[in-house]
Amino acid sequence: MRLTGERTLPDVPAENYWYRRHLVAYEWIARRVGSRRVLDMACGEGYGAAVLAGRAREVVAVEPNSEAFDHARLRYRRPNLTFERGIVEVFGEPGTYDAVVFLQTIEHVQDPPAVLARLGGLLTPGGTVYVSTPNAVRMAPPGASRSANPWHVREYRAAEFQRLCAAAFPSVEVLGVFHARRLRAHELALAFGWERVHRSLGITEPVYDRLIPMISTSDFALRHERLGRALDFLAICRDA
Reading across the β-sheet that carries 81-84, which strands appear in turn? Predict the structure, then answer.
């Protein structure tokens, strides 16, 4: 697949940071959907649906983009994983899925409340919708209200995202994705001036050429506190 910036891809060394940052949410959800029928809406390249299928009873993964859909269905093959081409506004029958996963996509849609209502309608009683989105505070350049990502219709701060989800579901819990381990160490090093040092020494490119491919999902952590500083938000939305 072509790397356009609309979605992240595995197996691209320079993209590994973003891939692992998105993958950690899929892994966290996968540990909670065992024996359930799961819908992965807007599945992109398909890596997340494959992770979910490693734990879930059945996964249906839906993707509107023809290139991504063809790639995913050919690359990821499991007996409990099916790929379908469709869009969120019309796909699926009400009351069909125990869990719906909608990651890093709500910022791309024109009518987020309608989309969340649609996803909630696909749940079986007691089901859960998982929604993630980047934190606008961490995406935007200093002084800007949002990033320059051309694929994003709207980006959210913590309170805005909480309100959006709470308007659609009676029970909402929001976690943040944060740097951990080596990425947290790197973050602290930057706070103490490491960026000036590696630039002055002319070693920026070699340092990051080495660091980025080493990043794993264990270099990220999900937690509740200080959501305003999170990289991404993950909302766990329940219908009761």
Answer: 81-84, 58-62, 37-41, 97-103, 123-134, 232-238, 171-179, 220-223
Do 53 and 79 contact (CB within 8 A), yes or no? no
Q: Which H or E element spans position 184?
A: helix 181-191
Q: What is the DSSP string of 127-170?
A: EEEEEEEEBHHHHSPTT-SS---TT-S--B-HHHHHHHHHTT-S
Of the listed ranges 78-82, 125-129, 147-151, 185-189, the least confidently predicted one is: 147-151
The tokens for 39 are: 């819908």
Say which residue the tokens 């007996």 belong to.
79
Largest CA distance in the chain: 59
Instruction: Map out the domains of the chain with their CATH numbers.
Output: 13-180+220-238 (3.40.50.150)
> How many CB atoms are located within 10 Å of the residue 94 CB?
11
| 100 closest CA partner among 169, 158, 22, 176 | 169
In angstroms, what is the C-alpha Rg of the chain?
A: 18
Is pTM, for the whole model, over 0.90?
Answer: yes
pLDDT at 204: 63
> Is-contact 26 48, C-beta < 8 A?
yes
Residue for token pair 């938000």: 233
Q: What is the mean pLDDT of residues 229-234?
A: 97
CA–CA distance, 154 with 224 (Å, rounded to integer): 23
Q: What is the dihedral sign for C-alpha 221, 227, 231, 236?
A: positive
